[in-house]
Every structure is written in structure tokens, then in C-alpha cells.
UniProtKB/TrEMBL annotation:
GO molecular function: nucleotidyltransferase activity
Database matches in NCBIfam families: PRK14109.1
Protein name, as recorded: Bifunctional glutamine synthetase adenylyltransferase/adenylyl-removing enzyme
Organism: Georgenia daeguensis
Adenylyl removase: region residues: 1-506
């Protein structure tokens, strides 16, 4: 047998916090007729109460209302509303459950319940226009809405009481419509606008009343009331200060001083009519402190006086405040004149010095001055609060609105939608800010509705949070916690977007441009482009037109990116090429959703991209082939060097997902391409020293060789019809690859080693090893989507005439019998890079005695190395190239330093273990530490080698030429030399300083080489 559910259990299930008390109240006799009538219609009253924000308080207020209406003509009206589950009952109970203040007002005047009843045929409350509210308010005090200067016939205290009652009746209707809307967030803009409209109506009615109380109705003066802040933006709260500014002008020949005096009397009386103590409670404070000079300034001014002040004395924040100025009462034509006259100042205020920075500083000061105890619960001023959204929208409007009249709305949500529509804010970001702003404002409304008091601090009491949560549609036993969690999420996301947009670097940069520069008009653009360093302004204008013409969203975003980026391109040595590369990149990216959004919103991606494209053709070409790398510019972590272990893991993952040889080797070459681009971006942006880039380039080559060896082995086995490899394979890095000091134009010098497995056919093993070595060279050297890596095996025994690969035993036999001094020297950089690790260790053990000989070199071997070096200098120097400009083979160049260091390694590494390194600079440092090379000499060699290496890389980065011998020659041509100089950190126009720096550095290094190498 099922136990009957108790009444208190049912009430608790319906949402009553105190079901026992609620049960007692439901038994009070005065409610019996209403309960019975509702039951008869099949819509029990307790269930209806269970839908409201605070069922307990709604029931208590309903009980008081029933007692107040008992025995009066209102009793039947209340019964009719409560009898049926119609909009009237839903509105009444929603008000009682959400607003103690409005509930008390209904108890005091139960006849006002009629305002909530169903009225078929009437326009919805939230759909009335401002004109409707003005007419309603003026007629309530007996004024003619069509009169040029409406004057009330219901005057004095009675007129004031009437306008206040009219306002509160309309506020009740708005609140009821708001609280019963299917989607409060969707209804919010209409609710806020309706409140602003009834405020404007009340001010017009009050002005009509106070005019009636002045002699002659004060018709000799024109007074306009300008709404500011949320009043001007038609986005008012239920209870708020009403910010206004007054403008006065004489009429009917009245002298200006008299008009100002009379206008001040009207404004003062107007404030008393709505704010002073009286028979009816005051409506709200009327705040005129946003006027010129604030509290210390005159209450009213003429239009000319306002203009004079704003032209000479106004501060940045005052123009931001004027963005929302709107005529709301009095002489609306004068108010429009005021707005029209000040609009040019508002929309050019951004051109004031440090306008954006001042606005940003003001926002920070507001946060800093907020009481710490309120910071986390302050809905208006706190981090992630309403001001974050409002300040973000206003700053963007002021920066971009001077040339774009389509984004000048004084209403926050309308302005945000306009900004998104014109491309100044990402649509997703705007949608999120819109949704969150509505949530915060509706929560603010629900907080203020309870007692009709100004408050922006979210309560901490659980019962209050529960009421707010239910009023926001958040119900259940954990409603309070759920509301808190949602609020934290909203504020976190609002704050993130605020910081991302409000502090974006494009804003101050755009603000510093003139309106002509921002507009990109051809005539003004041509003059500006020529002035800031573009060599082909007409060509630049064609690129600009191609990027900005049309009505697409991309064109809209480009229109506000380019004015700033043109200046950033001009800061590089190749602005014309930078713009061209940007156009090509933008066309490649097409409609890719993140590309332009990143450049517009990022903290520095756009500026970095401009610097890269106008400085480095190598990077520009690489980005054109890998455009998704633009996303790296927003995240330093993406530009950080990858360890060889991380790259190896990524290589394995990429190759394991592919089966065809081409795809597998392209994965390895793709990783190299990314490594080269990361290194190049870091070099151009100055993210690290030279060591950083050479290690990144070397690691990228290492990975490419490893990946190619894997594929070459599989391919060779497949071609030979073998299931298993007959040998172990090893690739030994030599030269700059072995020394981990590769540049952008470096080849990969290698040796190929193999070792047949026990029982394998030696002939088959040899053929297969040759196929593997050939495969590695071909796979990496092919041209195509990925940059080729030339694999050079000429340092092998017998050079080009020797076999491409040898067994470890064959290497041992050759080195034992035939090793030449230059081969010992080459082996100083030998480093196993790919293949069998054990075979690599045994190869190093084989060559260590050769490159680190005990007792050093014989004198004959030293003479041979000197002879070869001299021959290289005389025979390999390109014809027509001055020796002091060749960075590799010239005097004091790379070859000089490396041969000197390597000769000293061969002579001393057998006794000094610290010299056993493949790195030139590490070996040079060890030579100094061992006392073999004096500090000054070591310093000169170090400086020359490092400068030559940086110059070679800078030539490749600047010109984009990664092959050929020109990368080894210091340019003569001023444009190329300028680019190289800028990449090495020289100021614009100081290219000759770079030239002199190299000549001096190499000359000093050559003197050391003469002493140490040639003895």
C-alpha cells in the first residue's frame, strides 16, 4: 500500500524553503476562496507559486495582498486574476516572488493588480516606443504632448505625485513582463530600453510640472536634457542614478544670462520633482556630475559654452562618456543640435596623445580602487564584470568609429553587434560577450528588483542566491552553487576576452594614425607610403586595394589591419616586399577563419608578421608554403626549440601512420621544414642567440636523415625482395652537420657505414647498403614541396672515387693503411647521426685514435695540412670575389678559424680530453682553458667565426637564396647589405658600419691565424 505524500513534502518538492510555514499560510481563511477557485479550474495555487523565484515570500505577500483587498472593490479583481493559470496570474505571482518592494507597493495599493491582468488587443508592454512613453507620462499630468513646450495642468505636489505614480505603475508592468518572459536574456534589451524610456517620460512630465509652477511657464528658455551613461544608451537598470547634462538656449528674445538663470531654476526644480522627499517616494537620484567641470561647474550651459569647454579642457574620459549622450527630455531639437555639434570631437578624440593608453589606465585604476572585500563579487566594476564589456566596446568604437559611422551606437549590445558585423571583433567572441553581458545584466536586474535598491555586489547568503538562481532559471537543490559556478565561468571568459581585445596592440597604433591614414584613401595613402619609405607607392596601393576591396568580412578586417601594418612594414628594410608577401599570404589563407582574427586580436602576432615579411624573404617564402605557421607568432612556446627526443617521437608517429615511401620521407622532410622556419623566425625576431638557431637547424637535419634512412632501408629491402636487412646501417654526420653548427644554406656532409649480419651474403649486403645510401641521398635531395637537403658523401675514404659505403672493417683497414692528414681533420667532426647505435659507438671507437692522436701530429702531417689550406685559398676562391669579403674561404673567415682550431685539436686532443668535441667554438674555448691559445687570440677567432656564421645566415634570411655561393659573400649592393645589417641588429642606414665591423674583425682573426696556423 502506497503511503500518502504529506503536504509539507509536496510543498518542499514545489520549491518552498519552509514548507511547514507555507502550509500554515495556505490554511489562512482569507486565502480559501482564491485556493478553491484555482482548484476548480484545475490549476492549484501552490503549484503556480512553485514556479516563482521565492515561493515562500510570494505566498506571504499574496496573503498580505488578500487581506488588503478583502472587503474592497479589488477583492473580486484579485480573485479573477488568481482563478486561472493565465498570463495575469503568472505576472502577479512572478512579481511577488521576485520583488519585495513591488509586492509591498501592491499591498499598499491593491488596485494596481489590475495592471497585471490580461488586456487583449493592447500592444505588449515591452514593445512601446519612446514616443508612447512620453505621451503617456505627459497626459498623466495634463500636458499636451504635441505642444512646442508642454506645460502640465496637474501641478505642484499633486503633479509630482502623479508623475511618480505613473512611473511606478509602468515599472510594475515592465517588471511583470520581464519576469514572465520565456527567455530573460533575450528580453533584456527591450526591458532595459523600456526602463530608459519611462525615465525619459518621467523627466518630460516633471519638466512640464515645474514649468507650470514658474511664471509664464518659463517659455522664454529652451532646455534640453541629455541622457548619459545607461540612460543615454537606453540600457537602464531597474534602479539607478540617472545621469544627465543640461543645455540651455534663450528663446523669444530673452537675454542669454537670464536664459541661463532660468534654465538653472528649471533644472534644479526638475531634480526635486523626481528625487526630493514628497507624498510619493522619490524615483531616483538625478545626477548631473558628468557635466563640464563636474560638481564645480555650472548646472546648465549654453551650447556654445559646452563646445568651448570640450574644445579646450575636456579630459579623455569625458569624450568616452559623451559617446552615449542622447536627447531624452525637454527641447529634443536642441538636444540633437548638441549631439551633432559634439560628435566630431567625440569621434576624433582618439587622436589626442595617449588616448588609448589613458583609457586603459583608467580601467586599471577603477579595479585598483575597488574595495578588496567586494572585488570577487562586484558585478559592475570587478574583473570580468559589466565594465569590462562596456569599456571594451566603447574603446573599439572610439578608435575605429572616427572613420566608420556604422559602429557608433550608444547601446552596448548594439555597438558590439556593429563591431562584429564590421569585422572589428570576432563573431564568436562578440556572441560570447553578448551572451555573458546579458547574463550579468539580468542578474543585476534580479538583484535590484528584490528591494528596488542599487546594488552590484552579489550576495553570499544561500537563500538569496537560491532566489536569484531560480529567477535566472537555475533551479534544484544546488541552485545557489550552480549559479555561483556559472557566474565564475562567465566572469572568467569575459575577463579573458576583455584583456585580449581591450589591450590589443593594434588599438594604440591605430589611434596614433591620422584619419586619412586609417581611411586608406588612395591620394592620402600614396603620400604616406612614400613618406614612410615605400619605393613603389602605386604598387603598394594596388596591393592594398586587392586586400580591402569588397564587402567580405576579410576585406573589412583588412581595412582596419592595414593602416597599422603598413607602418610596421615600413619599419623593416623591405616594406614593399613585406606588403606583397602579406598579400600573397592573405590570398593563400583565403577565408581561413583564424588567420585574420589572430592578426586583429593577438597581443603581437600582426606586428611580428609585419617584421618577418619586411625583413626576411626566406621567412616570407617559407610562410607561403607553411601558412599555418602564422599561428606560432601568438605563442612563444610554439617558437621554442624542440629537443631531438621530441622530434624523434614526432617523426616515429608521423611515419608509423603512413605506408607509402614518399609519404614517409615527406614526413621527415616536413619536420625539417618546420624546424628551419622556427629557427628563422626566432633569428629575425631576436628570440635567442646564434647557438639557438644552429642547434635547431642541425636537429632538423638530424631528424630528416633519420627518417630518410628508415625509408631507404625499407625501400631497398622491398626492391631486393628481402624480408630482413642483411646489414646494420649507420650514417655518420661530418662537417657542420657533425659539429652541430649548420646554417640555412648548409649541405649535410656524411659517411655511410654498414656491417653485414652473421651469415649474410657479403655481395648482397654490399649491394643493399649501396642502395640504402643512394636512397638516403635521393630521398632528401629531391626538389618539391619540402626544401631539399643535399647529402654530400665526398669526405669518405678516397673521396668521390671511393665506394659510397663501406663496412666498419673496411674503414678500419683503410684508416690503418692510408689515412691522410685531411681525413684525420675531417673526422674531428664525425658524429653518428642515424642508424644502429652500437655500430655508431664502435665507429667512434675506431676513429678516436685517428682524430685525437697520442703525441699529436707528425711535422710532415702539419706541413701537409698547411699546404692544403694554402691551396684551398688560392684555387677555390671564386673569381672576382675580394678575399676579404668571402665569409667562408676569405681571410679571417670560417675556413681560417676552423682549420686553425682543428689543427690545434689534432696536435693536443690526445693529451687534453676537453678538446675532444665536434664543435668549433667549444673546442676554441677548451684551447683557451688549456692555455694553448691566449685569451685575446681566442676572442678574435671566436668573434670572427661567429660573425661570419651570422652573416651567412643573415644573407640567406634576407635574400631568400639558400643555395649557391652568393650566401658566402658579403654583399656590395646597398639594399642587400642594408637587409643583412638590420638582421644583425644595426640601426637603419648603418650598413657601412656592418661592413667595417666585418673587415676589422676578419683582419684581426687573420693575424691570429697567421700566427697559430702558419706558425
Amino acid at each position: 500500500m502506497t503511503r500518502p505524500v504529506s503536504r509539507t513534502t509536496t510543498l518542499r518538492r514545489l520549491g518552498f524553503a519552509e514548507p511547514a510555514t507555507a502550509a500554515e499560510r495556505l490554511d489562512v481563511e482569507v486565502l480559501a476562496p482564491y485556493l478553491a477557485a484555482a482548484d476548480a479550474q484545475g490549476v492549484p495555487l501552490p503549484e503556480a507559486l512553485g514556479r516563482v523565484a521565492d515561493p515562500d515570500h510570494a505566498l506571504l505577500t499574496l496573503l498580505r495582498l488578500a487581506e488588503s483587498a478583502a472587503g474592497t472593490e479589488h477583492e473580486q479583481q484579485l480573485a479573477a486574476i488568481l482563478a486561472d493559470d493565465a498570463p495575469g496570474r503568472r505576472r502577479l505571482l512572478a512579481v511577488l516572488g521576485a520583488s519585495a518592494a513591488l509586492g509591498d507597493a501592491l499591498v499598499a495599493r491593491p488596485g494596481a493588480v489590475a495592471l497585471l491582468a490580461e488586456r487583449p488587443g493592447e500592444r505588449p508592454v515591452l514593445d512601446l516606443a519612446p514616443e508612447d512613453e512620453r505621451e503617456r507620462a505627459l497626459r498623466a499630468v495634463g500636458a499636451d504632448p504635441d505642444a512646442a513646450v508642454p506645460v502640465a495642468t496637474v501641478t505642484g505636489e499633486q503633479g509630482v505625485a502623479t508623475l511618480r505614480r505613473t512611473y511606478r505603475r509602468r515599472l510594475l508592468e515592465i517588471a511583470a513582463a520581464d519576469l514572465t518572459s520565456p527567455d530573460p536574456l533575450d528580453a533584456f534589451p527591450k526591458v532595459s530600453a523600456s526602463i530608459a524610456d519611462i525615465v525619459a517620460g518621467a523627466l518630460d512630465a516633471a519638466l512640464a510640472v515645474v514649468r507650470a509652477d514658474l511664471p509664464g511657464g518659463a517659455t522664454g528658455v529652451r532646455l534640453a536634457v541629455l541622457g548619459m551613461g545607461k540612460t543615454g544608451g537606453r540600457e537602464l537598470n531597474y534602479i539607478s542614478d540617472v545621469d544627465v547634462i543640461y543645455v540651455v538656449e534663450p528663446a523669444d528674445g530673452l537675454p542669454e544670462p537670464e536664459a541661463v538663470r532660468l534654465g538653472a531654476r528649471l533644472a534644479t526644480a526638475l531634480a526635486r520633482a523626481v528625487s526630493a522627499v514628497g507624498p510619493e517616494p522619490a524615483l531616483w537620484p538625478l545626477d548631473a556630475n558628468l557635466r563640464p567641470e563636474g560638481k564645480d561647474g555650472p548646472l546648465v550651459r549654453t551650447l556654445a559654452s559646452h563646445l568651448a569647454y570640450y574644445e579646450r579642457w575636456a579630459k579623455t574620459w569625458e569624450f568616452q562618456a559623451l559617446l552615449k549622450a542622447r536627447p531624452i527630455a525637454g527641447d529634443l531639437a536642441l538636444g540633437r543640435d548638441y549631439c551633432d555639434a559634439l560628435a566630431p570631437m567625440v569621434w576624433t578624440a582618439v587622436e589626442r596623445e595617449n588616448f588609448v593608453e589613458d583609457s586603459q589606465a583608467m580601467r586599471r585604476r577603477v579595479e585598483e580602487n575597488m574595495p578588496a572585500a567586494e572585488a570577487d563579487r562586484q558585478l559592475k566594476l570587478g574583473r570580468g564584470g559589466l565594465r569590462d564589456v562596456e569599456f571594451t566596446v566603447q574603446l573599439l568604437q572610439l578608435v575605429h568609429g572616427r572613420t566608420d559611422e556604422a559602429i557608433r551606437s550608444g547601446t552596448t549590445l548594439e555597438g558590439l553587434a556593429q563591431l562584429a558585423g564590421r569585422g572589428y571583433v570576432a563573431r564568436d567572441d562578440a556572441a560570447l560577450l553578448d551572451r555573458h553581458y546579458r547574463f550579468l545584466r539580468v542578474l543585476e536586474h534580479r538583484m535590484q528588483l528584490h528591494k528596488l535598491r542599487r546594488t552590484h555586489v552579489v550576495p553570499t547568503a544561500e537563500e538569496e542566491l537560491r532566489r536569484l538562481g531560480r529567477g535566472m532559471g537555475v533551479d534544484g537543490v544546488d541552485g545557489a552553487a550552480t549559479l555561483e559556478q556559472r557566474l565564475r565561468q562567465v566572469r572568467r571568459e569575459v575577463r579573458h576576452l576583455h584583456e585580449e581585445i581591450f589591450y590589443r596592440p593594434l588599438l594604440p597604433a591605430t589611434a596614433r594614425l591620422s584619419a586619412d591614414d586609417v581611411s586608406l584613401a588612395p591620394a592620402a595613402a600614396r603620400a604616406r607610403l612614400s613618406a614612410i619609405g615605400y619605393h613603389d607607392p602605386d604598387g603598394a596601393i594596388r596591393h592594398i586595394a586587392a586586400l580591402t576591396e569588397g564587402i567580405s568580412r576579410s576585406a573589412a578586417i583588412q581595412r582596419h589591419l592595414l593602416p597599422v601594418m603598413l607602418g610596421w612594414f615600413a619599419q623593416g628594410p623591405q616594406p614593399d616586399y613585406g606588403l606583397l608577401a602579406f598579400r600573397k599570404l592573405s590570398e593563400t589563407m583565403g577565408t581561413t577563419h583564424w588567420y585574420l582574427k589572430l592578426l586583429r586580436d593577438s597581443g603581437g602576432a600582426a606586428r611580428r608578421l609585419a617584421r618577418l615579411l619586411s625583413t626576411s624573404r626566406y621567412v616570407a617564402d617559407a610562410l607561403a608554403r607553411l601558412p599555418e605557421a602564422v599561428a606560432w607568432l601568438d605563442d612563444d612556446e610554439e617558437l621554442a626549440p624542440r629537443t631531438i627526443e621530441a622530434l624523434a617521437a614526432e617523426l616515429a608517429a608521423l611515419q608509423d601512420r603512413r605506408t607509402d615511401p614518399v609519404g614517409r620521407v615527406m614526413a621527415a622532410r616536413y619536420l625539417r621544414r618546420r624546424g628551419l622556419l622556427r629557427a628563422a623566425i626566432g633569428d629575425v625576431l631576436g628570440l635567442g642567440d646564434h647557438t639557438r638557431s644552429v642547434r635547431m637547424i642541425t636537429n632538423a637535419a638530424d631528424i630528416a636523415v633519420r627518417g630518410a634512412l628508415r625509408v631507404a632501408v625499407d625501400q631497398a629491402l622491398a626492391d631486393a625482395g628481402l624480408d630482413e636487412a642483411p646489414s646494420r646501417y649507420l650514417v655518420v654526420a661530418m662537417g657542420r652537420l657533425g659539429g652541430r653548427e649548420m646554417g640555412y644554406a648548409s649541405d649535410a656532409d656524411v659517411l655511410f657505414v654498414h656491417e653485414p649480419l652473421p651469415g649474410a651474403d657479403p655481395e648482397l649486403a654490399s649491394r643493399t647498403a649501396v642502395a640504402v645510401a643512394t636512397g638516403v641521398r635521393q630521398l632528401l635531395g629531391q626538389t618539391g614541396a619540402e626544401p631539399p637537403l643535399d647529402v654530400d658523401a665526398d669526405l669518405r675514404p678516397e673521396g668521390r672515387n671511393g665506394p659510397l659505403t663501406r663496412t666498419l672493417a673496411a674503414y678500419a683497414e683503410y684508416y690503418e693503411r692510408w689515412v691522410e692528414p685531411w681525413e684525420r681533420q675531417a673526422l674531428l667532426r664525425a658524429r653518428p647521426v642515424a642508424g644502429d647505435p652500437d655500430l655508431g659507438r664502435r665507429f667512434e671507437a675506431l676513429v678516436d685514435p685517428l682524430r685525437y692522436p697520442r703525441g699529436g701530429l707528425a711535422e710532415a702531417e702539419v706541413r701537409e695540412l698547411r699546404r692544403i689550406k694554402a691551396r684551398v685559398e688560392s684555387e677555390r676562391m671564386p673569381r672576382g670575389v675580394p678575399p676579404n669579403r668571402h665569409l667562408k674561404l676569405g681571410r679571417g673567415g670560417l675556413s681560417d678559424v676552423e682549420w686553425t682550431v682543428q689543427l690545434l685539436q689534432l696536435r693536443h686532443a690526445g693529451e687534453v680530453p676537453e678538446l675532444r668535441t665536434t664543435s668549433t667554438l667549444d673546442a676554441l674555448g677548451a684551447l683557451h682553458e688549456a692555455g694553448i691559445v691566449p685569451a685575446e687570440a681566442a676572442g678574435r677567432l671566436h668573434d670572427a667565426w661567429l660573425l661570419a656564421s651570422r652573416l651567412r645566415d643573415a644573407i640567406v634570411l634576407g635574400t631568400g637564396r639558400a643555395t649557391g655561393q652568393r650566401a658566402d659573400v658579403l654583399p656590395h649592393e646597398p639594399p642587400e647589405l642594408e637587409v643583412v645589417a638590420r638582421l644583425l641588429g644595426f640601426e637603419p642606414g648603418r650598413r657601412l658600419d656592418l661592413e667595417e665591423h666585418w673587415l676589422r674583425t676578419s683582419r684581426r682573426a687573420r693575424a691570429v691565424v697567421e700566427e697559430l696556423f702558419y706558425d
